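RECORD CONTENTS
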Amino acid sequence: MHSFTYESKDSNNNSEEILGLLQFYTNLSRNVSWLVGDLELVPTYIGDYHPSGKVEPPQRVSLTMIQKFQEEGFLRLSLKEIEEMLNDSLSVRRGVFVCLPEHVEVSHFHGDAESTSLQHEYALYEITVLDDLIMTNSRSELLPPIIKGKA
């Protein structure tokens, strides 16, 4: 496993940075999904009042995912679902993203952003976010463009 740790460009606005890593690693493998654990998202602020004057707030993907995570303890998502979640989020304060082949069954997962060990035995790639640090573990020797610039 190849491990890299670096400091986020902006920990208060890191969703695009993390999404870039997820896209890079997803493109290296086919038929994969991502386990998400120890998740703390900061949704994008869109104001106190809905612009149409509706009493009901618009459906927010990030808030729906936060609620689902709190109920189930972890999420298993496709890249598209993660893209929707992160596009509706300002930042990820903490989180564990583990890439697995789709055929691997998972009944429970407890990711820990403070752990220094691999979070799942079948992990192809792992991205851990803890405040301003982004840590990656990968079976591939290829470096994501974001890390190449730091090396």
Remarks:
- The chain has a mean pLDDT of 85.
- The chain has four helices and six strands.
